[in-house]
Amino acid sequence: MMTDETPAPTDFIREAVEEDLKNGRFDRVHTRFPPEPNGYLHIGHTKAMTIDFGIAQDFGGKCNLRFDDTNPVKEDIEYVDSIKEDIRWLGFDWEDREFYASDYFDVLYAWAVRLVKKGLAYVDDQSPEEVSLNRGTLTEPGKESPYRNRSVEENLDLLERMKAGEFPDGSRVLRAKIDMAHPNLNMRDPVMYRILCEPPHHRTGSKWKIYPMYDWSHGQNDSMEGITHSLCSLEYENHRPLYEWFLDQLDVFRSRQIEFARLNLSYTVLSKRKLLRLVKEGHVHGWDDPRMPTLRGMRRRGYTPEAILEFVHRAGVAKNYSVIDVALLESVVRDDLNKRSPRRMAVLKPLKVVIDNYPDGLVEEMEAVNNPEDERAGTRTVPFSKVLYIEQDDFRESPPPKYYRLYPGNEVRLRYAYLIRCTHVVKDQNGEMTELHVTYDPATRGGDAPDGRKVKSTIHWVSAAHAKEAEIRLYDRLFTKEDPEEGEEGFVACINPDSLTVLTGYVETHLATSQPGERFQFERQGYFCVDPDSSPDKKVFNRTVSLRDTWAKIEKSQPRK
User: Fold this and answer.
1) Which of 198, 265, 369, 419 makes an SS bond possible with 444, Cβ 3.0 to 4.6 Å?
2) Torsion region of 189: left, alpha or beta (phi above 0 gives left; psi -120 to 50 gives alpha)
């Protein structure tokens, strides 16, 4: 029922729901989120979740969680548990309304018997290949099965024996009797039940030897639960006439189905079948690999629920197919982490720096800001000593134009510390730099010179005597093509060989006690999250997303020296 608090519509689905309430088609809103427990949820599912749970919440209604567990071959309780965990992580709540398609197997079978008795369903002995071949095409009608006109009595007997497990898998199916010449191929006597004697179902065990097809269970389960609005992705639009036909023949409650376009993301594949292939073939290290678009992978990478939901909100709800630029997701994540992440210093590719005129054995504590976006975060102190590590990229022996970082004779600011000037470089027998020697100005503590002189660059550092060694995992996009499916070679052929780079770096002491899941901004580097692989002795950090780096754009077009 509409109330004064009912929100103004913000998309075509909400407009439709509002209209249904206004014209009396429904006096309430009841939706459902129906995942299949045959894999892990990915960011595409998040769009469906925000629509299903969000619309119910907006209109003061309810949203059920219903697992579509109609295929025991691919399902597992592991997936059930992970799906519930991911939904809760995003902040959605189904309260006490956790259901399974298998809850309704008995009722669904009784409804199938009802259709058989009405002459609207029959047992077909054709092989799966024959059923597919005789279905016809978009331009040619299908061919009726030679078993289509079996008597009701024979069909009932065969169906009961199918249910009892008398026949082998694939030998018979139950089909609806509609119209083999129908222009919509989904209406050409669709299969309702197939025989699957093994494996046992994860909830019902070996009770059932036949299992319903999704097209048979979907609409009927919605009806059984009193779902008012069945919100589906666009590929089910052509299935809607079939769902409505079933409900009309059974004369039961009829939900309204509304379709929306899936969330598609550039440089990403979201097909569970293809994601499974990535895992099985070892292209990634499991479903929670931070390169995967699964919610588990994104959580491990350091994405927050708030960032994911904000991205889905910005992507919007549309009817037409579109692809969202993954850069939008990265931008939303970056903005979110900028507000909440404590700042820390970490050196990923270390270069040793010796301050020749700094007193031996002296250790100073420098005050550092925890988060300039949040005054309440306060400050911390970081140790400073004679020997430091800086980033290799912050030094050039022969600097290109517009390079303002450290080079021989140049002066830079050490973040929160002093101004230093490079005096000379030490190299090994192969000509590789091993350390820099610099001098510091003791009068510039805090980074400002009393004489007013200015420097054009500030670089970060860690104290060599106090820093902790850490494993740094730099993640990049998993595919090199914006559309990984483009071309004949397939998505596996465009996997990015540089999607993961593992480094050994040094991090400031405060990170030694960080816990898995904690997020930080490594100053001038990017946002990082502590990985579960961490140990008390050595932390592992996953790069969530990089910072914007204007110098990188300049340097791309110039040869490195």
Assistant:
1) 419
2) left
